[in-house]
């Protein structure tokens, strides 16, 4: 049923007639439910809804506002994961910690409702950084193992660390990878890993260094052009 309260507000409600002796109105998930005794006529029910219209509209508007806050597409640049672009979908829910879900077209970030008034950009950046760390743990192991088999040698140690704008480095026999490397395609990641492996043999970018890289990267020239603006 619907009740037109003025030119802009229409209250749509469902009636559940019960054996109770009094009428009860509730707003649940944006729906108005009227539980009324069986002997109440439609006119009597509408009269009560009209009487309670301000209370009902207040709760309906609160629900809509909360839904708009709970789920919204964030107005910022998409983020890249393994070379694919994703828009960010932000939600607020009654959870303890921020979480992130990788969907087909979106990265869904769920923040605790208590964070609504906090700086969401910093919280989202931290959540995305944790996601890159988690992805790196899964992805880099296979790429590193493949490089070990192909080149026949390996670093003394490997570590993941935030290097700022630098994606990777090789120093004193240790290769360090920035987890943010996970924003690039696997092909580019492998190129950078092979590059750092070659520094285990040749400290500088000598002719022998590039010959070694070209030996293990079939489409070296193509990928080299794609990563020339990256820092590693």
Mean pLDDT: 86
How far from one another are the termini?
A: 66 Å
Helix and strand composition category: alpha/beta
Order of helices and strands, N to C?
EEEEHHEEEEEHEEEHHH
How many DSSP E strands? 12
SS element count, helices? 6
From the 3D structure, determine the CATH topology of the largest domain. Zincin-like
Oligomer: single chain
The helix fraction, in percent, is 40-55%
By CATH's scheme, which homologous superfamily of the largest domain applies?
Answer: Metalloproteases ("zincins"), catalytic domain
How many structurally independent domains?
A: 3
Q: Which regions have little confidence, pLDDT < 50, spanning 5+ residues?
A: none
- CATH architecture verdict of the largest domain: 2-Layer Sandwich
CATH class annotation of the largest domain: Alpha Beta
Largest sheet: 5 strands, mixed
Please characterize this protein's 3D structure.
- The protein has 232 residues and is an alpha/beta fold.
- The chain folds into 3 domains: 68 residues, no CATH class; 59 residues, no CATH class; 95 residues, Zincin-like (2-Layer Sandwich).
- The chain is 40% helix and 27% strand.
- Strand 3 and strand 4 form a beta hairpin.
- The longest helix is centred in the middle third of the chain and has 32 residues.
């Amino acid at each position: 049923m619907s009740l037109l309260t003025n030119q802009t507000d229409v209250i749509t409600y469902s009636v559940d007639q019960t054996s109770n002796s009094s009428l009860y109105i509730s707003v649940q998930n944006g729906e108005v439910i009227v539980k009324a005794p069986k002997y109440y006529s439609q006119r009597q029910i509408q009269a009560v809804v009209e009487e309670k219209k301000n209370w009902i509209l207040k709760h309906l508007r609160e629900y809509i506002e909360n839904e708009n806050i709970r789920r919204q597409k964030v107005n910022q640049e998409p983020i890249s994961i393994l070379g694919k672009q994703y828009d960010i979908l932000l939600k607020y829910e009654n959870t303890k910690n921020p979480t992130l879900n990788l969907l087909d077209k979106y990265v869904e970030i769920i923040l605790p409702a208590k964070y609504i008034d906090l700086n969401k950009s910093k919280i989202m950046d931290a959540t995305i950084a944790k996601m890159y760390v988690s992805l790196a743990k899964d992805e880099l192991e296979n790429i590193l193992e493949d490089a070990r088999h192909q080149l026949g040698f390996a670093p003394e140690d490997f570590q993941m660390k935030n290097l700022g704008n630098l994606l990777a480095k090789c120093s004193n026999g240790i290769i360090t990878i920035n987890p943010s490397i996970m924003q690039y395609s696997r092909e580019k990641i492998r190129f950078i890993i092979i590059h750092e492996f070659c520094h285990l043999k040749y400290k500088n970018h000598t002719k022998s260094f590039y010959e070694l890289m070209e030996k293990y990267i079939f489409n070296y020239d193509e990928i080299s052009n794609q990563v020339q603006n990256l820092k590693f």
